[in-house]
Amino acid sequence: MSAPSTTPRPAAAPTDDAAVTSPHHDATLSVWPRLEALLPQVTKPIQYVGGELGAVVKDWDAATVRWALMYPDAYEVGLPNQGVQILYEVLNELPDVLAERTYAVWPDLERLMREHDVPQFTVDAHRSVRRFDVFGVSFSTELGYTNLLTAIDLAGIPMLAADRTDADPVIVAGGHAAFNPEPIADFIDAAVLGDGEEAVLEITTIVREWKAEGSPGGRDELLLRLARTESVYVPRFYDVDYLPDGRIQRVVPNRPDVPFRVHKRTTMDLDAWPYPKKPLVPLAETVHERYAVEIFRGCTRGCRFCQAGMITRPVRERSITTVGQMVQQGLEFSGFHEVGLLSLSSADHSEIGDMCSGLAEQYAGTNVSLSLPSTRVDAFNIDLAQELSRNGRRTGLTFAPEGGSERIRKVINKMVSKDDLIRTVVTAYTNGWRQVKLYFMCGLPTETDADVLEIADMAHEVIRAGRAATGSKDIRCTVSIGGFVPKPHTPFQWASMERPEVIDGRLKLLKQAINADRSLGRAIGFRYHDGEPSLIEGLLSRGDRRVGAVIHEVWRNGGRFDGWSEHFSYQRWVDAAAAVLPGFGVDLDWYTTRERDELEVLPWDHLDSGLDKDWLWQDWQDSLGEYEQDDCRWTPCFDCGVCPSMDTEIQIGPTGRKLLPLTPVTALKVPTGAQQ
C-alpha cells in the first residue's frame, strides 16, 4: 500500500524550530515536524496522526503530573483497548494531570525514526515519551514484551531500570500479564496488580507530592514511596535466590521498609467509575469499532485454565441503570452503531435479559446493534437471540466449549455438555444466524488425541442439527483452535505444556477428521494457531527474572510484534533461549514442558492475587480427578481466599430496576468530527 503524499496536521502542542534539530530538547515541543516528513514513506500513516474524536491535548506547563500510556501493539489493536481508554479519561479529568497515548510503531517507521533521530512519541501531541513523569504500559499478553523494549529504546530511556536517572520516566506495567512481571523485571520500574482506576490516582498523588517537596531522595525515594503502598511492586527492592537445580529458593525484600507481599487492587463500585464516557473514535481501521461498556468485572465459573477469571475475582456487577446511561451517553458522543456488552461471560449478568430487552427497545428503529462478545454456551437462549437481532443486524456469535470431549471439559471445569452446545447453536441458526464460531483449546492437561478428535464430531453434529432445524444447507460454523498456555494464579500454574510437534500433530488429525465427510466438512471453517507461539508464551507467562535476558536477546536480534504470526519467529526465540539459559543452568523445556511440584516456590508467589495457593493446588488435584467445581455465586463459598484476603465481596443483582426510563432514541446523530 502506498502512503498519501500529504498527511493531515493534527491538533498538537506548540512547535518550535528547535524541535526539528533536537527532538529531546524540550518536552513542550512537538516532534511532529520531523515525524510528518517521514509519514509518506510508511504504510497506514494515519495511525500516527492523532486528533481522534475523544482525544485530549492539554497544556504541558499547566500539568503537575504527566502520564504516557501505552498498549504495546499497533494502533489498530491498541486504540480500542478498554483499559487504556479508561485510565486516559480518568487521568485527564484531573485539572493538573496530563495523559497522552503511545502505541508500538511498525518496523518501517521504526527504521526511519532511528535514521532521523525521532523518539517514541505520543499520538495526542507528538511529545517525546521520555519527558513524561510516568510511562504506563498495559499488557494483555506476554508476547508484547519485545514491543516494550522497542518503545523504551526509541524513547531514549536506558533499557535497564538500574541505569535510569531522575530524568527518566518511571515505567509502570499493568494489565493481566503484570501478575507475573518477573520476566520484564529488569526493564520496568514498577508493576500494578489488578484494577487500575484507583491505582493510577494513588500513584499520581504520590508523584505530585514528591515533586512538590522538591523530589527529595530522587528516583529511589519515589519508588520507595510507591512500594510502601503495598499495592505497587518495585522489583529492584526484592532479591531472588536460586537453588542448585535452578528452582527459586526465595524472593525477599532487600530493605526493611518494603512489604514481603504486594497485593492486587480491586475496584468495588463499578457504578462510581462509568468509563469511558467519551470513547475514542479511531481515524484508521481498528479491530473493534463499537461502544463497549463493561457490564461486570470478575468471574467465578472457575475454568481452571482461565487466568482472567481467577485474578479478577470477585464478581462485581454494574447496575442496569448505569449501563443504560453509559450506552446512551457513549453513542451520542461517538456515533458508533454497535454496542458491545463486555465481561468475561456477559450472559451471566443477573439482569442480562432486562438489559438486552431494554436496550433493544431503546434503540428500536435505529441502526444500533447489540453484541455479547463473550457468551457461554449454557447462558444463551432464544430471548437473548431475539433481542440481539432486533434491529436486523446480527453481530458474530462465538461460543467456547474449550474442550472437545466431555472428559476434558471436566478436567478444565468447563461444565458444558454436547447437548448444551447443539441446543444453543440451533437457537442461533433458527433466529437468523447462518454462521457461528466455536472456540477450543489444544494441549490441555491430560489431553489425548481422542479428546481433540471429538471436536470434529461436535462440529459435524452442529451442521447436521442446523440444517435440520432451518431446512437450509446455508449453515456454517468455524472451528477455531488456540494452544493452551499455563498461566500464573490458576490451578494449571503447575502443569506441563505439550511440545509444539504434539500439538501440530493433533491439529493435523483434527483437520482430516473434519474433512472426512465432505458434505459436512465443506460447511466447517478451520482456523488454528500452531504450537510454537504457545510454547514461547508459556516461557514468558511462567518465567522468572532470568527470562529477561532471553527477551533482550530476541529483541536485539530483531524480535518485534511477536503476537503477529507474520512477524513471530519461533527459531529466534529458541536460539536466544539456547544462547542465554544454559548459563543459568536451565533451558527452554525447564520453563515449559516441566511439571512443577506442590512445594516449589513460583516466581509470582510474593505477588498476591487474593487466591490461596493451597486452594489452587487442591483444584489442580481435583482437575486430575476430573472433578467439577460449582460457581460460588450461587453456592456456598469454596474458600478460594479472595473475599476475606482482599476485604471484598461478590456484588450481584438483581436490583429489581429496569433500564428505562431513558429518552427513546429514534435516530442517532453523528457528532461533529465523527464523520469519516
Kindly list the characteristics that best describe this protein:
disordered C terminus, 23 helices, single chain, four-stranded parallel beta sheet, rSAM, disordered N terminus, 33% helix, 19 strands, globular, 676 residues, alpha/beta
Q: How would you describe what is shown here?
A:
- The protein has 676 residues and is α/β, with parallel strands linked by helices.
- 33% of the residues lie in helices and 13% in strands.
- The protein has 23 helices and 19 strands.
- The strands form 6 sheets. It has a 6-stranded mixed beta sheet.
- β16, α15 and β17 (476-483) form a beta-alpha-beta unit.
- α6 crosses α19 (547-556), α14 (418-430) runs parallel beside α15 and α15 (449-470) packs parallel to α16.
In short:
The chain is of the alpha/beta class and 676 residues long. It is built from 23 helices and 19 strands.
